TrEMBL record:
Alphabetical keyword list: Membrane, Transmembrane, Transmembrane helix
Stretch list, region Disordered: 1-23
Residues annotated as transmembrane: 247-268, 288-311
InterPro entries: DUF6601
Annotated protein name in UniProt: Uncharacterized protein
């Protein structure tokens, strides 16, 4: 069997072979089985992954710990307060900022600016959840979310951009950071914003509850997840990628605690040298106890950090091994089906 060309001569010359939906969607998307497909091949599941924020909705009652219930500040304010704006396609990281002052912002999808796409894919739900049990692929697929929820998530994302881009300089910042399409002029944005405000699209009843809050602090989100799942290893989004970064993350507070312990021991040593405290039995007992703690405390913390790091590494290895076995079995199945030599 002779090998086939990966693409044709017309790939970079033809302009009429793409359907309208494909022009609005990303070039490719990833399925739950980690396979690359065209987003237009499965638009409902693509929209679910691209717009739904189930993780934040799950902890909605605790979001007041991570942010304030008010619209996000405009982009010019974000830069003025030394925040670094980062384009991030992950919807659950939209308007989440790290302690390093990096603010994650999801670029506004082009399909949310297309009326026909809204009518066809965001405003029509034929499932029993909306009183229509005529089975189609949306209703019959249990993994596909009701478009009513996706609809509210889409409204919420638009709502956040109405707040982020308030001034003409905000639009320039959005263009510079690839948050809005370049063909969106200030006049077009003005018309869009006014229509959204006048039509009630930004009414809080029409948006996902997550968007009642503006910017959210990642450190507090991680704390909330650790509290809910009662595990220091369970986090909303880990900021480190290696076990070494994990150890350094624990080493910082440990270093600060060690310095404080050294200061207390020095003060106790001075106190014991005085006649008033040196003869005080209670102070001597406290000094003895704190000295033992100063010797064993940092050692225990270092060992604990090492154990946590080792456990995290072993867990990652097991997860990676299982994923590799599952994926290679899937690849082998595909190879047999396609009869690839």
């Amino acid at each position: 069997m002779s090998p086939a060309l990966p693409f044709s001569k017309e790939t970079f010359t033809s302009t009429h072979d793409l359907d309208p939906a494909s022009r609005l969607l990303p070039a490719s998307s990833q399925t739950s089985q980690h396979l690359l497909i065209r987003p237009a091949d499965d638009i409902p599941n693509f929209l679910k992954k691209d717009l739904c924020i189930d993780r934040l909705n799950h902890i909605h009652q605790y979001l007041w710990l991570a942010g304030r219930p008010m619209p996000p500040k405009p982009l010019n304010y974000q830069l003025a307060t030394s925040r670094q704006i980062v384009a991030d396609q992950r919807i659950d990281m939209h308007l989440v900022w790290e302690s390093s002052q990096r603010l994650h912002v999801k670029p506004l999808p082009r399909y949310l600016l297309d009326v026909d796409f809204w009518v066809e894919h965001l405003m029509t739900c034929e499932g029993p959840c909306c009183g229509n049990d005529q089975g189609n692929h949306v209703a019959s697929d249990p993994t596909t979310k009701c478009t009513k929820d996706i609809y509210k998530c889409a409204h919420g994302l638009l709502y956040s951009y109405v707040s982020l881009v308030r001034f003409e300089c905000d639009l320039a910042i959005a263009h510079d950071h690839h948050l809005l399409p370049k063909d969106i002029t200030w006049e077009k944005w003005l018309r869009l914003t006014h229509e959204l405000l006048d039509s009630g699209a930004t009414n809080l009843a029409n948006i996902n509850p997550r968007y009642l809050y503006g910017e959210l602090r990642l450190s507090e989100l991680n704390f909330i997840y650790s509290f809910i799942y009662r595990s220091p290893l369970r986090a909303y989004q880990l900021t480190y990628q290696t076990s070494g970064e994990l150890f350094l993350d624990y080493l910082g507070p440990l270093t600060a605690a060690t310095i404080y312990i050294a200061l207390v021991l020095t003060a106790m040593q001075v106190g014991l040298a005085t006649s008033h405290l040196g003869a005080n039995e209670s102070f001597q007992n406290a000094s003895w106890g704190f000295t033992i703690f100063a010797i064993l405390g940092p050692l225990i913390m270092v060992l604990l950090a090492g154990v946590i790091g080792m456990f995290q590494s072993c867990t990652n290895l097991l997860v990676t091994k299982r994923l590799a076995q599952r994926q290679f079995a899937l690849y082998e199945k595909q190879r047999i089906q396609n009869q690839v030599p």
